Amino acid sequence: MSDALEMDALWDEFHRVVNMTSAELAAWLRVSDAGETTEPLPDRAGPEAGQRVLAILQKRRTDLTEDDLRVMEEVVDTVTAQADPENEPRAEDTARRHHLMTLGHDPLKG
């Protein structure tokens, strides 16, 4: 994806679907990965996909790599697939909501 217009569109779409701030996502990854007796180091908390989204949120557009762009496309595709109102997770559908939150999208956030 070398076209600047495509990259700009992806950047905008990624930041539209990722509706959690980097601080909110980092906190969620730490909480979701904490166990009863241990928790991981803050920079290693959560699944790799969540860590990648967090890293992208902390970058400038000019610092993105091809791998970052691929991750951004995957996140946009995953979240967009869930955007259908019939498929949108509800408060009681915690597993789906937590999966999306790991990608930086809280479906209950307005």
In short, what is this structure?
The protein has helices at residues 4-17, 22-33, 48-57, 66-81, 94-102. It is mainly alpha-helical and 110 residues long.
Give the SSE map:
Elements: H1 4-17, H2 22-33, H3 48-57, H4 66-81, H5 94-102
Helix pairs in contact: 1-4, 2-3, 3-4
Summarize the structure in words:
With 110 residues, the chain is mainly α. Helix content is 55%, strand content 0%. It is built from five helices and no strands. The chain has helices at residues 4-17, 22-33, 48-57, 66-81, 94-102. Helix 1 (4-17) crosses helix 4, helix 2 (22-33) packs antiparallel against helix 3 (48-57) and helix 3 (48-57) crosses helix 4. The mean pLDDT is 83.
**H and E string:** HHHHH
Q: Tell how many strands the DSSP assignment holds.
A: 0
Average pLDDT level: 83
Largest sheet: none
* Spans where pLDDT lies below 50 across 5 or more residues: none
Q: Percent range for helical residues? A: 55-70%
Using the alpha-carbon principal axes, give the shape.
Answer: globular
Strand content: under 5%
* Structure class: mainly alpha
Return Rg in Å. 14 Å
> How far is the N terminus from the C terminus?
31 Å
- Tally of alpha and pi helices: 5
